[in-house]
Amino acid sequence: MFVSQVADGPPSSHDSPQLRPQMTRGEIESALASGSSPPVFTSSLRRSLRNDRDDSALDQNHLSHRKTDCSQPLSSNEPETKERKNQICFQPRASILDYTELMYQGSDRIRGLVTCFWTIIGAYLVSLLLSHYENNGEFLSRGLASLIFSRGTDLILSDLALVLSTSFVVPFVRVLWIGRWQPRFLDPRHSRSMIFQAVAEIGWLVVWYTWQGTRGWPWSQRCFFSLHTAVNWMKVHSYLSTNRRLACSLRTRNELEELQSTRKEQNKVTCMQIKALDAELCPYMVRFPETQTLSNYAMFQLCPTLVYEIEYPRTSRIRWGYVAEKMAGTVGIFIVFYIVVAHLVIPHLERMHEVGLLLTTVHLMGPMATCWLLFFFITFDSIANGFAELTCFADRRFYDDCWNARGLDEFSRKWNRPVHMFLARHIYMPVRELWKNSRDIKRSGFISHLQKNMPPSVAAMAATFFFSSILHEVTIVVACHRWNHGVFFFSQMLQIPVILFAERAAWFRGQQALRNWSFWLSMVFFQPLLLCLYTYGAFVPKSSSLQGPIATSTTAIPVANATYSL
Description:
By secondary structure, this protein is mainly alpha-helical. The protein is built from 23 helices and two strands.
């Protein structure tokens, strides 16, 4: 399951929205070589050339230099619009723990660390398998494997249909927002258009959650399908929202151009506005709406990102050896993950009704921390980097140094950047701008009091937490087929006062090491606690007389020669 990705403050310098320089480095060199007049070197253009040289040192033969200058402010002749502030920037970057990429670049800074880590994991697994053989007469438990691979064909076909069904967004955009005969009442700048988009998204989500609930799958298939449904919904929402914004810019530009053509003299401000809108509609090589094709959307579906852009920075080629290494890493990490879950997690959950909730939580602290670490590596180091290489997606910054996090807010921004970028663009920044603009409107009552006393960043953080908590709770309820009285929802919402306390308490704010220790201790304890709370009823034997809010049976789970309900 994914943890809430909260952007509780202004985006980092890598996320700051900027306009692309008017000429790239290659265009400038070509112009100088041909003997034509040299370009005007503005300050932003010089910064762009300097950043091109710095980034090319990362991998001169592999990463493309087509990117946006995101580290410097806008030049004086390029107006900054509200739409620009909601943009997320992509740059050619490598994952900081991608050992394979570092080896391709000739660096072995973490070779010993990687070798030591997997050697220790391998030695521990050998010991674990030998102990299981001595106690059960077999090296590997096969009960969980039969559960995972049961009804595999049905799951694969359903997942393929799920992904293909998201392609409805392409005709949706072309017909309703940019088509020649688009309805006037669905102007993308009007609130009715946003409502129509929300109805389409919710309807799509309800259809597939309902489909998942009627298939009778075991919990492993339900968890995978529910998570993949949520991921595809985020892609659908980002595609529709970004193209609706671009359709608004396109209509505004056309209207300004028509207005300019009726005037006898050219208005300088209008020309600057048209120029800024042109830069937004054509940031690299392809211009909106020519990007509205099925091939463009298919590439977005395959790219390891949840934020849609017209174009992304690309690599020059596919390194098939790199892809093979990532595929082998995915298989190897999945085997380790299976052994830990089958031999260390499920046995403790089976005895939970005997030893109690608290003791089971303590027993699961180590295995659950290991499972989180393996999930992190298989998702962001193996799968995400593998798909990035196959699609020539150059921005491999899927995570930051989340191990140095001093609180959940910082951890949420760093450990899963694809989800963080989605929430930053589509939840945090729009709510912050809306709250900031609505403070000028005079109101009375409780809402007016909140607007005067609550900063826009805090309001945006609360809205992002609320949305993330709702999404988590819905996904877990659909996957588990039971509602545990909103335990996950309230546990996440309670993090808001904890974050505010940690930021405002002067004696605690400066204790960086203590904050890091306290964060990881809370993560190690509360993750297995939430797992126990949501699976307590599932692992109570049918003969048990225990009754609880989640003890209703829906599906039988054959694990370790016993049957448990979920």
